[in-house]
Amino acid sequence: MYEHLSNPGAVRRILDKYNIRFRKRFGQNFLIREDVVEDIVDGAGITERDDVIEVGPGIGTMTQVLAEHAHSVTAVEIDRDLVKVLGETLSGYDNTEVICGDILKTDLNRLVREKGEGRPVKVAANLPYYITTPILMKLLESDAGFESITVMVQKEVAERACAGPGTKAYGVLSLAVQYHAAPQIVLQVPASSFMPSPNVDSAVLHLKLYKDPPVRVQDPDFLFQLIKAAFGQRRKTLVNAAGTGISGLSKTCVSEAIAAEGLSPQVRGEALTLEQFARLSDRLCRMAAKNDRSSPEL
């Protein structure tokens, strides 16, 4: 096995050997603390029965430890230069595979199907800050059958994912994450744990995916259209935000639906739970059907 890379000296030797420079466009920050790497793998609950998909392995710091715990690791890396590095740093691990590609363009269903042996598939990743939400949502919205997703993200993003109604951090991301999974922050990671150090601290977010969403709605797309409208103008009441933020939806209809749900006419979106948004969404859909509409646009 190759030496563990979770220390500054080892990282620097690899980068110098391959003449690798940190690339801001890929959001590259390499972990340099072995205890943090071990804690991430522990937080992800990786065991020898699991197949793991790692997003953005970098030089293989976490990949090595994942490989020592999992049945197999498939790492998707966008930087071709780092793929060459991984050929060396993972040479001692026969249960790893590196794919050069963009995770946003990767067919996750096919990737999981190719495992084909029915083992749990878990995702682990150190997500670049500049593209965290698109990657996270692709993973959550995939029907590839992931058991869990464990990601290192900006601390603020992790807090938003776990936030509840009535808090400043609560918003579209909170509801989107909680529709698909049960979120938990398992580790706080200071900026000094990386090379180069980012400007903010990070956190490890563990997401246990639901087999079925915790709420059932007639039209999930409309549910999130309603949620996005509510938080797109979060200082406005829900009546005004939804009534002006969704094409064809009148303030009168929103007002009637809110009243029927027993909510204050002055309620704002930040006060509603996922369950309340779901009930309101379904009520608006029923009102649409009653008016012989084919969509929930009223």
Termini separation comes to 63 Å
Average residue pLDDT: 91
**Broad structural category:** alpha/beta
The beta-strand count equals 9
CATH class of the largest domain: Alpha Beta
Q: Helical content, roughly?
A: 40-55%
Mind telling me the CATH superfamily name of the largest domain?
Vaccinia Virus protein VP39
Task: Describe what you observe in this structure.
By secondary structure, this protein is α/β, with parallel strands linked by helices. It folds into 2 domains: 8-209, Rossmann fold (3-Layer(aba) Sandwich), CATH 3.40.50; 220-290, Orthogonal Bundle (Helicase, Ruva Protein, domain 3), CATH 1.10.8. The chain has helices spanning 8-17, 34-44, 61-69, 80-89, 108-113, 132-141, 155-162, 172-180, 220-232, 238-245, 251-260, 274-290; strands at 30-31, 51-55, 72-77, 96-100, 121-126, 148-154, 181-189, 194-195, 202-209. Helix 6 (132-141) runs parallel beside helix 8, helix 7 (155-162) packs across helix 8 and helix 9 crosses helix 12 (274-290). The longest helix is centred in the last third of the chain and has 17 residues, at 274-290. The protein starts with 7 loop residues before the first helix and ends in an 8-residue tail after the last helix.
